[in-house]
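tool=predict chain=A
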Amino acid sequence: MLRRRLTLLVMCLATFMIQLDVTVVNVALPRIQADLGMTAGGLEWVISAYALSLAALIPAGGVLGDRYGRKRVFQAGLAIFAAGSAACALSPDAPALIASRAVQGVGGAAMLALTLSILTETFPPGDRATAIGTWAAVGGTGFGVGPVAGGILLTFFGWASVFWVNVPFAVAGLAGTVAVVRESRDPRSRPLDRPGLLLSAAGLVAVTLGLTESAGHPWRSEPVLAPLLAGATALAGFAWWQRRSRHPMVPPGLLRARSFATASGIYLISYTAFSGVLFYVTLLYQDVAGWSVLRTGLSWLFLNAPFLVMAQLTGRLDRRFPAAAVICAGCLAGAAGLVALSLASPVTPFAVTAAGYLLAGAGFGLLVPALTHLAMRDVPPGASGTASGMLNASRQIGTSVGLAVLGSIGVSAAVADWSGRVSHFPAQVRAAARGQAQNVGGARIAAVARTLGPAYRPPAAAAFEHGYHLAVGAGAGCLLLAALIAAAGFRGAALPAAPASREQQPERAR
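tool=predict ok
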């Protein structure tokens, strides 16, 4: 029992570190943008490079863990994540930072693929829901601490400090893993599907590149159309290969598990909304409203406090209500929260934003633990590593591709609104104003004011806010879609698990 609790502690520490990294970096984005002179598209890649690396390699991490040992691969992930964090902190320019974020994602992929798998193999079905709830809640704590920690660090140090903070957590996680985590593997696991891995990774990167470029180029232009077509071709090739491969990266048995397939789809859609909203809210309050990083970080406590409370209560609610009802309630509460956030502006009372944070936090607190437990319930014996990897990959695909989609909506709308305003400017400033379109779309309002003059700050801010409202509103629509999918896909599902059979007990490595 003690070893189980300590294993849970180590897995929670790893999840805490990964979630801390997400929100710490989000708060630091405006500072990174200013210091490295990044465009809105480049800034999106600071997030997307990490998330894409995670999404592409998480399935591989799950397969490698099942085949060669979950503990061994998890340890390697911790070490790579620490090295990637140090490389991010030392990056001298934008390309180096984006590349280092991708390295971070390689390590994070191995960890995220296997934290849930190790917990599933460590805890019997009767205790699994509580363990997963604790895991999700502690991850949420990292998510909540991140903005405050980032605000404090950035108040006294440079943006590199938000990456250095990961290193001591990684060292502690390595020590704990060596000491308490038992090795487990599935000797019957399939080989790694290398062609499938390459096709899926190439497709995701290309599609994200095309969507990101669409913010600054017409949809029919080569920088947008070429990567989108290449990405679609690669993903179509991936789907074709999966039907013919002897050892597909996406096992047919997992896709036939209705709860798992539905949960993966909801994860993708819900994190499409969540990642885009966090990105835009940060830019709104720091770059447009002029808040300090500390004030921005503290405001996010209105989001994270209800997340933690509801994540702890979800286990009790799961026993009293159908799974579909709990997950749908989370989606609807989150959608209501994003609607409130879509109405926010620098002159709106903060009570509107706080209400949006509270509803969104409570919704995700309901959604994440219940969805995770229900997804893993129907996983075939011995496939927990692969399933855990695919589930987390769907979340990261939502984060990367979804951020590109919402970013494209927001930037395109802001640029279009700014172009309409420019036509009414004095003739002598129109040419210079048109050249500021990407700064407007990326919320670099101070740069616009320096170039055109203080009088042009209000119209630039208003144009960005137009894009903000549409992007965050689209995020709310994503959560409404997720609620509909949950209602249809989880009809009749219930969370309490049946007693474990002998085949479901973890096989320990000797």
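The domain at 2-190+251-417+461-494 is CATH 1.20.1250.20 (Growth Hormone; Chain: A;). The CA atoms of residues 341 and 483 lie 19 Å apart.
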